[in-house]
Amino acid sequence: MLDVTNTPLKALLRRRKKGHSLEAPFYTSPEIFAADMDIIFGHHWIFVGVDPDIPEPGDAMTFDIGKASIIVTRDDDGELRAFHNVCRHRGARLVLDYKTTVGNLVCRYHSWTYGLDGRLLHADHMGEDFNAACHGLKPVHVRSLEGLIFVCLSDDPPKDFDVMAEKMAPYLAPHDLKNAKVAFEKDIIEPGNWKLTMENNRECYHCAGNHPELTVPLFAYGFGFAPEQLDEHEREEADAYARLITSSHREWESCGFPSQMMEHLDDMVTGFRTERLPLAGDGESHTADTKAACTKLLGKINDPRHGALHFWTQPNSWHHFMSDHAVVFSVLPLDAEHSLLRTKWLVHKDAVEGVDYDLANLVGVWEATNDQDSELVGYCQEGARSPAYEPGPYSPHTEMLVDKFCNWYVGRMESHLAGRGED
């Protein structure tokens, strides 16, 4: 077993063996966690919510990325704005609620008042020499990609977000999230390092034995398989699934739904992956009976059988878009061994609960799956603490995308450390 107790981070990164999981300190060390928050979550585009979280001028949403509390607002012109949630007077938090509606942003401590554009509008008793223009809220970069909200804490955010946005906009546009609403959201505190949560998401090797609800609308051969281990019947099934993907992509694209796989998980700073895949059974949605959960479809979609579009972004999100609803996921690290998984279910903004959809049916598959995954992540975290733990090999057939997540993570960490001249 490798002794990593006093090994510098740069050396740990350098000796990472591709095709294998990371060494234990990457999942357990508070020092490496601090580096993750600085380098990964402090310098990359982080998915934090959706436009329907703050649909109207004056709406605001807050969240924490490590020690940073952030406010995202919609200003009077309907534009998104983001700021550090810190009063410029003596540092009090401005907005204390997760979601709220405001006229201006008023600090309850001494009533310093800021506009939705971050300008300081009012500050009593500060003297004649006080320059309000120098004390506006500190801005944070914010972008909406067809209704998905990303922020970047760096002063110099990765510019290739524009590349991702250009490529992804046609895939996302038919689902029209800006004209959807959040039907339900749920937070889970997962008992594991954020990277374990992301690794778990990037494969379905574990799905057949752990996710009875999720596997109902999914085809088994979509999980990955070892061709050399298939018998004749299984090979015919795998070939039939490949033909189904080809024919489905052709049909969907003829209807204006881009579907082909695009994968840039470890060759871009703003890594992402997407593909539209067919669903099993009635083929309509991620539900227990594979039928649409909401009768009012998203956007201007008029056919529920357009499969499920998945969209992943590095470092912290994955999403599923069906014809009738969407499910979006964000992972926000809390400490070295705990992470916040925030899930939101979206339906058409005019859909009525109890009329157009049953909430339990809408959320059932992913609510169960999240609970199951949280337990699995906890098992991995417990194992990483063991003195017997050492990096294990990934399956080349079913875990190649986990490897790409780790490749991206190691590459981004090494790039930043090299740029700073750190060991």
Automatic annotation (TrEMBL):
Gene Ontology MF, one: dioxygenase activity
Rieske domain boundaries: 45-151
InterPro entries recorded: Rieske_2Fe-2S (IPR017941), Rieske_2Fe-2S_sf (IPR036922), Ring_hydroxy_dOase_asu_C_dom (IPR015879), Rng_hydr_dOase-A (IPR001663)
Cofactor: Fe cation
Stored Pfam families: Rieske (PF00355), Ring_hydroxyl_A (PF00848)
Membrane spanning stretches: none
SUPFAM superfamilies: Bet v1-like, ISP domain
Keywords: 2Fe-2S, Dioxygenase, Iron, Iron-sulfur, Metal-binding, Oxidoreductase
CDD domains: RHO_alpha_C_GbcA-like, Rieske_RO_Alpha_N
Highest taxon above the source species: Bacteria
Protein's name in the database: Aromatic ring-hydroxylating dioxygenase subunit alpha
